[in-house]
Amino acid sequence: MADIVAETERLVLRTIEEGDAALQYRLLDTPTVMARLGGVKELHEIEAKHAKGMALYAQEGFSFLFMIEKATGEMVGHCGIKRVDNPLAKNPGDHEVGWLVREDRWRRGYAEEAMRAVLDWAFGRVGAPHVVALTSEANVGSWKLMEKLGMIRRRDLDFDDPAYPQEDRPTILYSLTAEQWQEHKA
To answer: Where are the domains of the chain?
Structure first.
């Protein structure tokens, strides 16, 4: 049974369970949604990510979560915390936050609402001293939300990942400390 990690005004953030990969594959794995995230994935790739996330939650108490819309009960995205695990990154093991919202729920503020809860979780129960978020210059909506959340651009942590198309390179990073988050929220 899924754990409810946080609730916001419009969302329930719950852990991912066995069998959720098919739901993500159907609702989130579209060319438009995945355009800046390395493209659509195969179902087995999503299943592998879910297995890794469930293991992380069991071991460390954090992972990526499904965003469930309270009004409909539908899954509208995913968000959460993982460890930086890209072998090319300069900061492996850091707490990395991220999000993804299905296309028919874009421009409703769900990503910001969910990420405020995720950052409270990261700096509260998880006890992360700082978090990072990764994107590309081309993913304007993503880095603009990072800035809106008070995150600071960290050019010293950028890296080139040839797994992504040229327009999504290099991978750029933003960071936020627990102190910066408290100041930003005030």
So the answer is: 4-185
**Three-class SS of the chain:** CCCEEEECCCEEEEECCCCHHHHHHHHCCCCCCCCCCCCCCCHHHHHHHHHHHHHHHHHHCCCEEEEEECCCCCEEEEEEEEECCCCCCCCCCCEEEEEEECHHHCCCCHHHHHHHHHHHHHHCCCCCCEEEEEEECCCHHHHHHHHHCCCEECHHHCECCCCCCHHHCCEEEEEEEHHHHHHHHC
pLDDT tens per residue, the chain (186 residues)?
Answer: 789 999 999 999 999 998 899 989 888 888 888 887 778 899 899 999 999 999 999 999 999 999 999 999 999 999 999 999 999 999 999 999 999 999 999 999 999 999 999 999 999 999 999 999 999 999 999 999 999 999 999 999 999 999 888 999 999 999 999 999 999 988
Domain range 4-185, CATH architecture:
3-Layer(aba) Sandwich (3.40)
For the whole model, what pTM was predicted? 0.94
